[in-house]
Design a protein that fits this description.
Blueprint: H1 5-14, H2 17-22, E1 28-30, E2 33-36, E3 48-51, E4 56-59, E5 65-66, H3 68-76, H4 80-90, H5 102-131, H6 133-145, H7 150-155, E6 159-160, H8 167-174, H9 179-184, E7 188-193, E8 196-201, E9 214-215
Antiparallel strand pairs: 1-2, 2-3, 3-4, 4-5, 6-9, 7-8
Helix pairs in contact: 3-4, 5-6
The structure holds zinc ion.
């Protein structure tokens, strides 16, 4: 079943991100924003920020960010459609679902899965940059040398891939993402060779002499994958 576009719009218009997030963490006002300890990673001092004017949230610790729909997806670990249904229920909006053809259903499902897995990869690379020794000593120091400040690194959601070819695959599979899905999302590249399947992985933007590669994403959709043979 599909939620009609007008209903999606109505849900988006009705949602107040502060109310949505307050159901999960209690927000405190700071200046024009609201803050809390991040519900997505462990921390003692709050780095989770909500901007009510722009109706978005952003954690400066782990990089999770988005709007109310994304927040519900992440916190409840559900897809886009389910998140909209959750919000519709919260705001008493009735959804008259439209029948979907089997092809539409498959396409939408796949799109949702791809967005979820790309978002996982983005966060994984960001966490690698900020929270691993290699990420900090190579990736972060590279960005610093280039004069990138923390807000720039946050704004462009820069990340780092370890010099360990299957780190993303391992973590992805640990979280239940199949190798097929990771491949479909362009995050790994599977090559059949004499010795069986060889898995290569996405490295994103090459960063000059800074190897391993640094990944970069801008805009609301994840980066276009760019394979580099290593
Ligand atoms: Zn966080």
């Amino acid at each position: 079943m599909r939620i009609p576009e007008e209903t999606v719009e109505r849900i988006r218009q009705s949602v107040d991100i502060l109310e949505v997030i307050n159901d999960f963490v209690s927000l405190k006002k700071r200046g024009s924003n609201y803050i809390a300890c991040c519900p997505f990673h462990n921390e003692k001092t709050p780095s989770f920020n909500v901007n009510p004017t722009r109706q978005i949230y952003k954690c400066f610790g782990c990089g999770k960010a988005g709007d109310a729909v994304r927040f519900v997806m992440d916190i409840e670990n559900i897809g886009y459609g389910e998140s909209l249904r959750y919000l519709a229920k919260k705001y008493g909006i009735e959804i008259e679902e439209e029948e979907q053809t089997p092809e539409e259903f498959l396409r939408q499902n796949e799109r949702e899965s791809l967005l979820i897995v790309l978002n996982f990869a983005k966060t994984f690379f960001q966490e690698t940059l900020l929270n691993t020794d290699e990420g900090k000593s190579i990736g972060l120091s590279y960005f610093r040398e280039r004069g990138f400040t923390n807000p720039t690194i946050d704004a462009f959601e820069l990340g780092y891939t370890l010099d360990q070819w299957d780190a993303l695959l391992q973590e992805g599979q640990r979280r239940g993402y199949s190798r097929d899905l990771l491949e479909k999302a362009g995050l790994i590249l599977i090559k059949e060779g004499n010795a069986g399947a060889i898995v290569k992985y996405l490295t994103g933007f090459g960063a000059g002499s800074c190897s391993p590669f640094i990944t970069c994403r801008a805009g609301s959709l994840p980066w276009g994958p760019d394979f580099k043979n290593r």
